[in-house]
Amino acid sequence: MALVVQKFGGTSVGNPERIREVARRIAETRGAGHRVVVVVSAMGHTTDQLLDLAHQVCRRPPRRELDMLLSTGEQVSIALVAMALEDLGVPAISLTGAQVGIHTDGMYTRARIRRISTGRIGEELEAGRVVVVAGFQGITDGWDITTLGRGGSDTTAVALAAALQADVCEIYTDVVGVFTADPRVVPHARLLPVISHGEMLELASLGAAVLQPRSVELAAQYGVVIHVRSSFERREGTRVVPEANLEKAMVVTGVTHDRNVAKVTVIDVPDRPGVAFRLFSELAAAGINVDMIVQTAKQQATTDLLFTVARTDLEQTLEITRRVAAELGTRDVRHDDTVGKVSIVGAGMVSNPGVAARMFGALAAQGINIQAISTSEIKVSCLIDEQRLEEAVRAVHDAFAPGAASEQPALIQPR
Amino acid sequence: MALVVQKFGGTSVGNPERIREVARRIAETRGAGHRVVVVVSAMGHTTDQLLDLAHQVCRRPPRRELDMLLSTGEQVSIALVAMALEDLGVPAISLTGAQVGIHTDGMYTRARIRRISTGRIGEELEAGRVVVVAGFQGITDGWDITTLGRGGSDTTAVALAAALQADVCEIYTDVVGVFTADPRVVPHARLLPVISHGEMLELASLGAAVLQPRSVELAAQYGVVIHVRSSFERREGTRVVPEANLEKAMVVTGVTHDRNVAKVTVIDVPDRPGVAFRLFSELAAAGINVDMIVQTAKQQATTDLLFTVARTDLEQTLEITRRVAAELGTRDVRHDDTVGKVSIVGAGMVSNPGVAARMFGALAAQGINIQAISTSEIKVSCLIDEQRLEEAVRAVHDAFAPGAASEQPALIQPR
């Protein structure tokens, strides 16, 4: 008898019929003798509708009140899923983040989980119930409701799986698994049956949109096996496992792209120590993730500082950057929100020189200009014109695909 | 500087524009130097929509899960009202029933408040904030969410006013106040500027639908002055005050009617002590309020037992009654859900004989048959055919209205 955490996203519980289907899936798992903890998101477009309401009553809704508002979406879903289970004769109970005891910090709209109380869930499982937990939400020590940011239900599911030492965390979603590239852009992209946490983390961060990066980070940290599956099709999906469980690392596992990117450039920053620290620590304090950072040396005492942030953070980023720039003696802050990012990811990259060069070559062959580059041990990212993004993904995918060039190893293939 | 509790119903917060208007009202009160605690209901038809969703996924939704579901409606409202206040520059904070500490028993969908913690509200008021509290909901000692039943937000408001020793509890609603009869039925009905808790309690119980009975009961118990006002018009409305504050009692204050009535008759019950106790204690245990009870003596060892319940409780009532009846040796349980109730209410009735007789006379003159009668010190109710209900209200109102008969005192008039 295993303990299984199953997470169903917003599309999977988008209407009453789908909720009944989700209940049938859960009932099957329970029928096979397993104990089940379910995590659900808000139905369909609920979150967007609530945000729209918020903006109709307030120009800049306070983040605390946004979380009070948005957390209702998941609360509706858990009640309905528990009801649908009861209708099938499966004893079930719904619990909010507060009721479970998902304790977070006080960063409203993007809170981080600090600890999870497992007492109540344990009691309910003991009593033979399926426990249906609201994803995406938590509670501060002062009992204020927080949310974990977009896609936070994945994080809830993985954190619960870690806290409960579950055997597997199944993430049901509207795609059948993780592909070598977005199949809407690269029709011949292949499904990956297994991938490492590290690779998935890069893919998730880079916009593959299957799992929230924070959830993969947590899974890696606690060794949680994530099984990404379709809510609508009975296919095997993709298992995300610790590196050690993989027989061998692929050089390039997948190609991914991201449109939620904006570029900010500060012109003529004084070229002295502490400048970058000053700016990026203020951005971090505001909870803004800075991605690529490039500093271009000039022939004088100043330098240009280029970095990228999520487009959704651009407004706040510019506010902070302009203030800091003015204090540093420059007022020239430029930005561009028509850029996109294409990346290759693969755990074997570090031991295969020339991979980055091959990517640059593929882009150059299409006449696509690279505005910035960033690399890690298992990924290479290039910032380019958003207009050329899909073309770039196809070119890079083809450059690494099996048979693309005979002198190259067959880089992308499912195992 | 007074402490004012203001409650806004579902229609008052029915859409973003109305929420902004509610925020302006609150801002005015605060601008006049008062501390304000606001209680709000779910927006418009939210509760009905949620109930509809529940019934689409489950034939008999568990009450605990219904409360989990329904309580989201008020949570949405409080967040939006707090946001709309912030937008006007008024510092505000929303709190759920759980966050306030509105502790109830565990009777889901019709819970009763046991105690209220005032600590958090006190701190927020101290910090200069308007506190926006979710009506209708509470929390059990085991941290499960409960709701107080339809109209429960009134109860929340009055209970908070009592716990905080507020100067007044203003209930904003979609009517301008309490009338001598329903103005949709009796166009010349008059607005009552003041009424006693006792009279209002009878009116509320009898279906005047302006205030929830439980809220008036609480107000009477703790001496809370309720001020019923329109959300949409700037009129003075009706004050509901302790009896002692009234100069004199009117014989008949108002005429009211109720359609949410069903009649149940148990035929041939053994005529021995303990039978009524047996049945009505089981109904009470299920949380069902029994209203009129009439026992008709026969020429033999059995009797017929007639009683009324809310139509919404009929199904459950029949289940229990049939079981108990079978145990008592009779299976003949009849019911009728096409009845209605017309009542007169007035604190001066007890010292004016002949009031009941005049009411029966008015109904007889219209050829309306009375199926059952119940009386208290300040009211007389008649159960009649629902089809004749409006006609009955008009006839009774006219019989007691000023000038209707010169030998009668002018019974219904605003003071």
List the helices and strands and how they pair.
The structure is a homodimer of 415-residue chains.
Chain A: E1 3-8, H1 16-31, E2 35-40, H2 46-57, H3 63-87, E3 92-95, H4 97-100, E4 102-104, E5 113-116, H5 119-126, E6 130-134, E7 137-139, E8 145-147, H6 152-163, E9 168-173, E10 178-179, E11 191-192, E12 194-196, H7 197-208, H8 213-222, E13 226-230, E14 238-241, E15 254-258, E16 262-270, H9 275-285, E17 290-297, E18 302-309, H10 314-327, E19 333-336, E20 339-345, H11 355-365, E21 372-376, E22 379-385, H12 389-400
Parallel strand pairs in A: 1-2, 1-9, 2-6, 3-6, 9-13, 12-14
Antiparallel strand pairs in A: 4-5, 7-8, 10-11, 13-14, 15-20, 16-18, 16-19, 17-18, 20-22, 21-22
Helix pairs in contact in A: 1-3, 2-3, 6-8, 7-8, 9-10, 11-12
CATH architecture of the domain at 3-174 in chain A: 3-Layer(aba) Sandwich
The whole-number mean of residue pLDDT values of chain A reads 89
Oligomer: homodimer
Could you list the spans of chain A in which at least 5 consecutive residues all have pLDDT below 50? 402-415
- Report the sheet with the most strands of chain A, covering strand number, pairing sense and barrel closure: 8 strands, mixed
| Structural classification of chain A | alpha/beta
Q: What portion of residues of chain A belong to β-strands?
A: 25-35%
Task: Considering residues with a beta carbon less than 8 A from a beta carbon on another chain, report the largest interface and each chain's count.
Answer: A-B, 39 and 39 residues
CATH H-level superfamily title of the domain at 3-174 in chain A: Acetylglutamate kinase-like
Task: Give the number of DSSP strands of chain A.
Answer: 22
Through-space gap between termini of chain A: 28 Å
CATH topology descriptor of the domain at 3-174 in chain A: Carbamate kinase
Q: Please, how many helices of chain A?
A: 12
Helix content of chain A: 25-40%
**Main CATH class of the domain at 3-174 in chain A:** Alpha Beta
Tell me the Rg of chain A in angstroms: 23 Å
Strand arrangement across the biggest beta sheet of chain A: 3-6-2-1-9-13-14-12
What is the general shape of chain A? Answer: globular
Enzyme class (chains A, B): transferase
Function (chains A, B): Catalyzes the phosphorylation of the beta-carboxyl group of aspartic acid with ATP to yield 4-phospho-L-aspartate, which is involved in the branched biosynthetic pathway leading to the biosynthesis of amino acids threonine, isoleucine and methionine.
Catalytic activity (chains A, B): L-aspartate + ATP = 4-phospho-L-aspartate + ADP
InterPro entries (chains A, B): AceGlu_kinase-like_sf, ACT-like_dom_sf, ACT_Aspartokinase, ACT_dom, AKii-LysC-BS, Asp/Glu/Uridylate_kinase, Asp_kin_monofn, Asp_kinase
